[in-house]
Specification:
Oligomer: single chain
Region (Disordered): 519-557
Domain KaiC: 6-245, 246-476
Shape: rod-shaped
Protein name: non-specific serine/threonine protein kinase
Number of helices: 17
Structural class: alpha/beta
Helix content: 40-55%
Number of strands: 24
Keywords: Hydrolase, Kinase, Phosphoprotein, Repeat, Transferase
Largest sheet: 9 strands, mixed
Radius of gyration: 46 Å
Enzyme class: transferase
Length: 557
């Protein structure tokens, strides 16, 4: 049966993830790097988190900084070393090592250190130890064999006492440390690097070795700021993240109507691209406002405008983002792209997402980030993956200077997006109008029409597509064409009404003629009947006369 290596969590965000639990428990670990890379702060955080989070008291033995200096240096991070010392959870001991004194007293070994360190450990029941820095401690050793023996003896003493130790060391020439021995006898070696490229500093961390345990082998960016140390671990390498269900509204009724389900899929990545002045930021503001109105948490990373400026500008289209900020549903993180390196921006985003846990994230714009093409693409890929694995709906904006569909510096981002909305300025008749159309929306039917959209104090409104004789018309060209077609429609209506009236007149004339003919026919029929009656009367009179004549003739005879 396999037994997992016991580990002591450092409490440093991200580091415990890439080491699968922390540093090896009961063993020494070496933290090495050049000056200013954060070795002492890393070690201090390890001790403070152990005392406050894991109930493991610790001893900090410094060979350079005095206790009061160390406490003052980390106070800005919220570390109360004096309070931990008073509570018996932390012991700080400054050991002054002077080369001149060593030469006066001759060669020395570490027996005195063991006694002093052992007393500090026993006094508070320490489980963790930090030795900062080891170069100062071994400054008096000139014999390499003696140095190696004492170093092994020190590490053996730490293991025998079952102490989880961090030993810091300065970076050497062509090797990890100056002596070149510490990395071989340490069970875990972590290399810190403070790199400057194009006048931008980026801190990186790499686990060089870890005996008995798997670990992340890449370089990982890490942050040192007011929130302490945080490390960006590797993102998911497999496309096996869960897909959240449901549809979210963009806050713009016309845009939702262009999408089959009536909005975007929750957890999708949405790209809004366009030229300067097309309304990308205001479109994302509508998405944020709609999400906050639903009670969802939103975070906006801005690289070109301050949060106050975005809030002010959003008021022009009737959006009160300040109310969402005050209500705790919206948080802005605004920073110039040149303030940090790409990896640092990514690390800050990782930490902020874990702290705030938003439902919707806006990054405005990704085109502001600076770096080589390979670095930009790698950073954006990890950024998208970072958000997708958390099931967060993300809206990215990017500036497209030439208005084309495909651009050389696209970096392959558009192919990673689930939906792509393109904004474009159209110029005609001496004016500029804004248009919008959906290039793609994975998994849903969507309109392929170009729509004009208007921004006013009532928000963003999409205008129905208007197709004129020369194609899609916008702005005053649309109004002129509408007026022209309305006039033509009125003319046709007037012509139709005239023809209807003409037909009515002709109908009336025909009907009058029909009435006259009907009256004439009736008169003819009456006259015919009258003649027939008269003819009958005459016939009757003749018959009577014949009867009377016959009667007179009979009487005469």
């Amino acid at each position: 049966m396999l037994t997992a290596l016991a580990k002591s969590p450092t409490g440093i965000a991200g580091f415990d993830d890439l080491t699968f639990g922390g540093l090896p428990a009961g063993r020494p670990s070496l933290i090495c790097g050049a000056a200013g890379c954060g070795k002492t702060l890393f070690a201090t955080t390890f001790l403070v988190n152990g005392a406050t989070q894991f109930d493991e008291p610790g001893v900090f033995m410094s060979f350079e900084e005095r206790a009061e200096d160390l406490a003052a240096n980390v106070a800005s991070l919220g570390y109360d070393l004096d309070g931990l010392v008073a509570a018996g959870k932390l012991a700080i001991d400054h050991v002054r090592v002077e080369r001149s004194e060593i030469e006066e007293t001759g060669e020395y070994d570490l027996e005195g250190l063991f006694i002093r360190l052992g007393f500090a450990v026993d006094s508070i029941g320490a489980k963790r130890v930090v030795l900062d820095t080891i170069e100062t401690l071994f400054a008096g050793f000139t014999d390499p064999s003696l140095l190696r023996a004492e170093l092994r003896r020190l590490f053996g003493w730490i293991k025998d006492r079952g102490l989880t130790a961090i030993i810091t060391g300065e970076r050497g020439e062509g090797q990890l440390t100056r002596q070149g021995l510490e990395e071989y006898v340490s069970d875990c070696v972590v290399l810190l690097d403070n790199r400057v490229e194009d006048q931008i500093t980026t801190r990186r961390l790499r686990v060089v070795k870890y005996r008995g345990s798997a670990h992340g082998t890449n370089e990982y960016p890490f942050l040192i700021d007011h929130a302490g140390i945080s490390v960006l671990p590797v993102t998911s390498a497999d496309l096996d993240y869960e897909v959240p269900g449901g549809i979210i509204s963009s806050g713009i009724a016309g845009l939702d109507a262009m999408l089959g389900p009536g909005g975007f899929y929750r957890g999708s990545s949405i790209l809004i691209s366009g030229e300067a002045g097309t309304g990308k930021t205001m479109l994302t503001a509508s998405v944020i406002d709609a999400a906050c109105r639903r009670g969802e948490r939103c975070m906006a990373f801005a690289f070109e405008e301050s949060s106050a400026q975005i809030v002010r500008n959003a008021r022009s289209i009737g959006l009160d983002l300040a109310g969402h900020v005050a209500g705790g549903l919206l948080r802005f993180e605004a920073a110039r792209p040149s303030l940090f390196g790409l990896e640092t921006h990514l690390a800050r985003m990782h930490r902020d997402l874990d702290q705030f846990r938003p439902d919707v994230v806006v990054i405005d714009p990704i085109s502001a980030l600076r770096g080589s093409t390979s670095e930009l693409q790698a950073t954006l890929l990890r950024m998208i993956d970072l958000i997708k694995t958390r099931g967060i709906t993300a809206v990215f904006t990017t500036l497209r200077g030439d208005g084309s569909l495909v651009q050389e510096n696209d970096l392959g981002v558009s192919s990673l997006m689930d939906a792509w909305v393109k904004l474009q300025n159209m110029e005609a008749n001496g004016e500029r109008t804004r248009t919008l159309y959906v290039i793609k929306a994975r998994g849903m039917s969507h309109s392929n029409q170009v729509r004009e959209f208007l921004m006013s104090s009532n928000g963003i409104r999409l205008v129905d597509a208007y197709i004129g004789p020369a194609g899609v018309l916008t702005g005053t060209a649309r109004m002129v064409q509408e007026a022209r077609e309305m006039a033509e429609t009125q003319r046709r209506l007037h012509e139709t009404e005239r023809r209807i009236r003409e037909v009515a007149r002709r109908r009336s004339a025909i009907e009058r003629q029909m009435e006259e003919l009907r009256a004439s026919l009736e008169a003819t029929e009456d006259e015919e009947e009258h003649l027939r009656v008269e003819d009958g009367l005459r016939e009757a009179d003749r018959a009577k006369e014949r009867q009377e004549l016959t009667a007179r003739r009979s009487a005469a005879e």
